[in-house]
């Protein structure tokens, strides 16, 4: 799909403001930071709100219908509210840039429906954002370009997403990602990744999440040898080199998302080799029935997934396991659904993201008959949620009395003691921990003792400031 632009009219020389609205996954969060950095480097400043911004960037998600509906509703509201709120504008009528996955698959529709949108830029063309913005908004001046660091939310001052590979070649039958973000794998050179890690550490970042639609695919697109790196350089090789270079630095490394089919024993060993790596694993199961997994084109069976988890747990007994589960996929009868419930009971996930099946235009599964009534899908989803919540809470309670190293993020309200004077942070594995403390400790590693378990967080008591690996 080509990039669509509508030239804006020049109006004023006063500072141009921007606002970035993000829908979707962590990759979108990382991309939004790139959009913001580009705009600030061109002299823009953050707006007080989306309504008042001269340039509004809407970064969209197409993974599920609900995410698309939210983005379209938001664009409609902004198209209605912004002109009335801003009677004069640096950018003629205000400029809306519609970017991300929806721009890849529904850009023509948005173009016809919302004339207020000046830019439509697919997720696969993010590298063209600067040149497109400059061509559409002549008020921006390339001559004033400088290195910028956007204003960040409190947690972003210490944690950052670092994309290392883009695209997904797996072609699951229900998934829009290969169509929206590309089916060709594009891995970043290791040296480029190492330089960015260096920069992030120098900025005071304490937790770096390596991102990919499938991080396990890192390096699979390389046919020629990278200079100074062996042929066949893979994700586990990258982690080994990160350990050698940055293990002593005051930073944790996490990663998202992994495909169970591609999670190798070498990768497990690399993660187990150092305390600088998170032992939290997000491995989407999607379904526990072999026929449904086959129809989904997931590339593994329930036994295959079970064996993978057993293998990882034998090497890393303290692993934290999260997953994705889809209910109501075409062909899922009551027996298939029960197989999923059985797998959830057997595996014991610490947390799960659960969804009703949402047909995505252009995917193979969209063409299949979907005879399951929506009310039945919702009934199954509720059963699954209740089961998983019971399991998650039972598993969480086993950690009461244990000590955890926590990266403090900012102020919070304790689920057990509402009010001021509480701070929140995350463990290396991503668990939310809330305890009495001082916000001046934000960005520090704190040793805390778990005193209470809740569905989505722990209560704790602060012990002391520590190093990250204590």
Keyphrases for this structure?
single chain; 470 residues; alpha/beta; Transcription Regulator spoIIAA; OB fold (Dihydrolipoamide Acetyltransferase, E2P); six-stranded mixed β-sheet; five-stranded mixed barrel; 12 helices; 22% strand; disordered N terminus
Walk me through what this model shows.
The protein is an alpha/beta fold and 470 residues long. Among the domains are: 4-144, Methylthiotransferase, N-terminal domain (Rossmann fold), CATH 3.40.50; 155-278, 2-Layer Sandwich (Transcription Regulator spoIIAA); 403-465, OB fold (Dihydrolipoamide Acetyltransferase, E2P), CATH 2.40.50. Helices cover 33% and strands 22% of the residues. It contains 12 helices and 18 strands. The protein has helices at 26-41, 65-85, 101-113, 129-136, 177-181, 190-202, 235-246, 265-272, 290-296, 302-315, 334-347, 374-397; strands spanning 4-5, 17-22, 45-46, 55-60, 95-100, 117-122, 159-166, 186-187, 207-212, 252-256, 280-282, 320-327, 351-356, 403-412, 422-427, 432-436, 445-453, 458-465. The strands form 4 sheets. A 6-stranded mixed beta sheet has the order 1-6-5-4-2-3, sandwiched between helices. It has a 5-stranded mixed β-barrel with strand order 14-15-16-18-17. The longest helix is centred in the C-terminal third of the chain and has 24 residues, at 374-397. The N and C termini lie far apart (50 Å). Residues 1-12 and 143-148 have low confidence and may be disordered.
